[in-house]
Every structure is written in C-alpha cells, then in structure tokens.
C-alpha cells in the first residue's frame, strides 16, 4: 500500500481492541497522528471485562507502526467527556481529518435466537446506548472541527453490510443497533456534502478479534483449528484488513465517490488492491450470499 497520511490527524473512538485498534494502527502506519479512546486503561476496566487490552497499548502500537498515538480515556456516552476530547484535539492540533466511530462493547449483552419478549430488556436498551448513542454524541462534537477543512472522512463502523443486514440478525436490539450506522452514514453524508466531507459505513467480515479467538480457544497463529468447530470461520479475516481499508479510504483523494454508502473490508481490498496479513483477500459477504444463503457448491477457499 502507498497510502500516505503524514500531517493528518485522526480520532479512532473505540480503539481498545479488535477492529478499532487495527484501524488506529494502520492509520499510524501511514504516518498519521491518531487519538485513540476507550474505557479500558491500565488503571480501569470497562464492562467488557478484558483488562489485558488497553488504550495505552493501542497508542503504543500506533507509535511503533510509524505514527503518533495519543491515548485519551473517554466514555463516549458522556457528552462532557467527548466535548473535552474534541476541545483537546482542537487545542493541540487545530484540525481533525479522520473520525472513526468504532465504539461498541456490547457483545457480552447478546442473546441470539431469543424473541423480543424473552430478551433481557435492560441489556437490549444498553446495546442502543453503546452502539448508537455513542456514535451520535461523538459526531455531534467532532464534526464541526472536521468540517473546517474539505476532504474530511467519517467512518461509521458496524457489523454487516446494508445488504447482508436485510437478513434478520437474530436479536431485535442487535439488529437495530447494527443497522443504525448505515442510516447515520447516509444522513451525515447529505449534511456534510456541501462542506467537502465524506461519510461511509464500514464493516469487517467474520472478524478474528481477540475475543473471537478466545471464544474458540485459538490464537492468530492457530486460528484455522477453529474451523472444525465453526466451518464458516474458514472465511475469517484478521482485524488488519479493515484497518487497511480505512487507511486506503483516508488517503484516497477521490474518496467522495463512496460517500453515503455501505462498504466492507473485503470490497475495499479488491478496490484498492490490498490483502490480509496472510496475503489472501477474503470476501466474507460474497461467501455468505452465494454459499451459505444461496446454496452454491463452493468453499471458503474459493472466496479468499
């Protein structure tokens, strides 16, 4: 990849682990200065309950990759904290070129194959707060700074493309939460169009996050061992793929052609000609559409 982001300032909201961490690191690898936020620090653990992954670690990885990582503990449900964060970025840098809304942290609340009236209502409503309210609050405070210069990029990170999410996601609150970023991107694209901004929604495929690897009892080096438990894991991708997708978008002078659209890491890998860490180019959503839902006689290997 030839993306060059030296001199650019990015904020990755929700960069403690997984896709958020990878996007921050890849922006740093291209030379960007990256503010990384989250609730888990070396002194405090969020409700996700994974103390070994912190925003300080993410900031260090950004710097080690070639950028400048700055960790700012932030609860994006607290407007005053988000406002203070943006004021700090303005004070220290005077600009914001890339905003990645990757806040989530609600996987521990999921109850799949459970009807609405049997769901834990408090857990369902908490998902709305974590996956929708945080994104709206963050954009409310960050967009005025980003809009000072044309060419800004806002990435709404979600789970599933707009097309894939036409299939019910087996939990009403999760379904609504993960469809909302598509509509947020569509709406904000219209609002920033005359200011020269670009807004997209972006999803990884079947993500080999730290939590997913732990779930299957494997590591990034041994992840294929989990295919015996879950055959569809054969299409899984590392978090680096979506990181490279954001890096490519941010560096593209013609990125406005994507504005308002739902995108995936696999789709952008083809468009910008980059690969995952193993050299493959997994097309998760093509595999699910053709093989899992469509019944095509093919394997995950045919979509890598």
TrEMBL record:
- Record's InterPro entries? NAD(P)-bd_dom_sf, SDR_fam
Q: Which superkingdom?
A: Bacteria
What this protein is called in its record is: SDR family oxidoreductase
> What organism, scientifically named, is this protein from?
Streptomyces endophytica
